[in-house]
Amino acid sequence: MRLTLDVRSVLIAAVPEIGLARIRATAGRKYAHKRQQVLCDWALQSYMRVRTHKANPEASSFSCTALRNDLHIKNFKPLLRGLYYFTERNGRYSRERAQTKQYCLHPHVRMALSAVMQGTAPLTVLNVDTGLPVTRSSVPNNGIPAGLDDRLFVPSVMVVPMVQIETAIHRLIEAGADYGSSVCADIEKPDGCTMGDALQYLYTCRKWISSPLGGVPNMYKVTSTGRLGPDGFHVIQFPAVVRRLLFDGSGLSDYDIESAHFNIFRSRARSLGFLTPYADEYVAQKAHHHRRWMSETGHVNVADFKATATSWLNGGSLSESVRTETGKRLGSTVVTILKEDTFASALRQEARDGMVRIVAAMATEATGNTETTYTNVVGATIRVQQKAHGKGAYRQVDFGRLCAHVLTGYEQWAIREVCSIAVGLEVIIYDGLIAGPGQERTLTEHILHRSTEKLGFPLELRMKEAALTAPELGDASNF
Question: pTM for the full model?
Answer without folding.
Answer: 0.87
